[in-house]
Amino acid sequence: MNTLRRMSATPLVALAIVLGTTGTATAAADNVAVAxxxxxxxxxxxxxxxxxxxxGDVVDESNGAWAQSSCEDCRTTAVxxxxxxxxxxxxxxTSVNLAGAVNQNCERCATYAGAFQFVLTPHEPMRFTEAGNxxxxxxxxxxxxxIEGATFGHTLEEVDAFDTQVRALADRLENVLHTELVxxxxxxxxxxxxxxxxx
Length: 199
What we know:
Layout: E1 2-8, H1 14-18, H2 23-28, E2 29-37, E3 43-54, E4 58-59, E5 62-69, E6 75-86, E7 92-93, E8 96-103, E9 110-120, E10 126-128, H3 130-148, H4 156-179, E11 181-183, E12 192-197
Parallel strand pairs: 1-12, 2-5, 3-6, 4-7, 5-8, 6-9
Antiparallel strand pairs: 1-9, 10-11
Helix pairs in contact: 3-4
């Protein structure tokens, strides 16, 4: 049975991954986007996008995004997207997904952090179809273009609208995982179960 877990944007304890306040989190923090902005009237952004295959019985990969602003009229964005495909026994799945956004001593600042993690446990070798690889490349490029060209202001409505666009790209990626990930020897998996989606 293949299990697909989707986790997104849990805005607490992100500093444990980003700044290494706990040893275990830091060791497993293999996909992290960190954006810190301290210059007035500027835009700072970071993106991390990773697809990883793991083979052991422990799946503890971590994904994190941290955005922090300490300036005036500035914008800061961090987005981390991670896909983990566990092809081994995967008996101990403890993957972590964290995001945090902070405005510190800011005036008219807009700060966004989004972390999206997909963990699959098919227990056998998998590959993406040619169409799937092309779609992933397009999603990655679209995400970078969206982040680079972000024009959201400091109102909550504008940040929410940007978040909706980012989540739409995460939905596209999830669709690829459902439709374009096949057995290495050929054939689709029959059963795919969505276990968890964190708001």
